[in-house]
Amino acid sequence: MDLAVCDQYKKVKLQVQIHTKELTDYLHSIEHSLQLLEDTNKRKDVTSILLEFTKTSQLSLLGDEAKTLDVVLENLLDLRRAKRPLYKRFKIKVGEKIRDISVPQKSLELFLKYYVSPLIDHAKCHAQSHGGEVGCTPKYSIKSILPVEFVLSFDLKDAYKNIDLQYIFDFYYDLIFEKTKDVEKSKQTAGFLAGVSTVYYADRGYALPQGSPICSKLFNRVLLPIDNLLYKYSLEIGLDYVRWVDDFIFSSSDCGLTLDKFVKTLDIVRNYFPISENKTYFQRKHPVYLLGHKIVGTDISEATTEELETRRQINLS
């Protein structure tokens, strides 16, 4: 593939942030993220829409689903009445990095897990997008690209923080409008769901939290257009592609494939999100290290901490 053909991937613009006015209107109409639940009619609309996507949850196998959901929503309002945050926030150190963790309070966790997650599942993610999806493991992802001879892997920088409120609102709005064909109900419900699905970062505003049971699923579906671009490009030049949350992996067993073909994948992704340069690796000798595993031929085993640190130091040198 020549450079002129590759340029087509730089010119493609993702269909994102297309409901800016709707989100702005919603935000101007509320004072807090749970306000919609205080309006009886709007709360009924939310309940009706969610039950369209969730026929039966594990919370009410023997009871009335609408009543069960209403109890869950009332428990969310109890958090506000008690002046408690929706998420428990704390920081942990992982290696050299400090991670900002946000774990939903129990009542919110139940709502996200049993009512919002099934709604998200109605939207497609790419077949090669595995992290957070049912039945997928890192080893499963690695097996999908074997045999591995040459590999480029990289992470996004501050991946979840870059998926802001507008991305999440747009995702929910499109999904709900497709079902209801009602602009106002779609706006109100998408706004409510986006509000409880995100947390506030002082340096970014509202964005996806790390620690929520639905964040990986949302991330995967927001990135579907990028996955489609990368998969198309990979097929055209003979690469295998897989993504585990924000870990992008491109591999080939073709010894004649040049490095610049791999590098074009970085250019494609950089059009939309920043890349973590110190987590970008090109490997051409065995063993190959991917997703915390060591690959030698077709053998896959968990890598030791020492092995991963050695690879990191080599990459920094």
Write a structural description.
- With 317 residues, the protein is α+β, with helices and mostly antiparallel strands.
- It has 13 helices and eleven strands.
- The strands form four sheets. Strands 6-7-3-8 form a four-stranded antiparallel sheet.
- The model is unreliable at 1-6 (pLDDT under 50).
Write the layout of secondary structure elements.
Elements: H1 3-6, H2 8-11, H3 20-28, H4 40-53, H5 65-81, E1 87-94, E2 97-104, H6 106-121, H7 138-143, E3 150-156, H8 165-180, H9 183-197, E4 199-201, E5 205-207, H10 215-222, H11 224-237, E6 240-244, E7 247-252, H12 259-270, E8 275-283, E9 288-290, E10 293-296, E11 299-302, H13 305-316
How far the N terminus sits from the C terminus, by CA atoms, comes to: 31 Å
Query: Order of SSEs, N→C?
Result: HHHHHEEHHEHHEEHHEEHEEEEH
Number of separate strands: 11
Number of discrete helical segments:
13
Shape: elongated
Rg of Cα set = 21 Å
Strand content is: 15-25%
Task: Determine the mean pLDDT.
Answer: 90
Category from helices, strands and their pairing: alpha+beta
How much helical structure, as a percent, in the residues?
A: 40-55%
List descriptors:
13 helices, elongated, 19% strand, 11 strands, 4-stranded antiparallel sheet, 3-stranded antiparallel sheet, 317 residues, alpha+beta
Task: Write a concise synopsis of the structure shown.
The protein is 46% helix and 19% strand. Strand 6 and strand 7 form a beta hairpin.
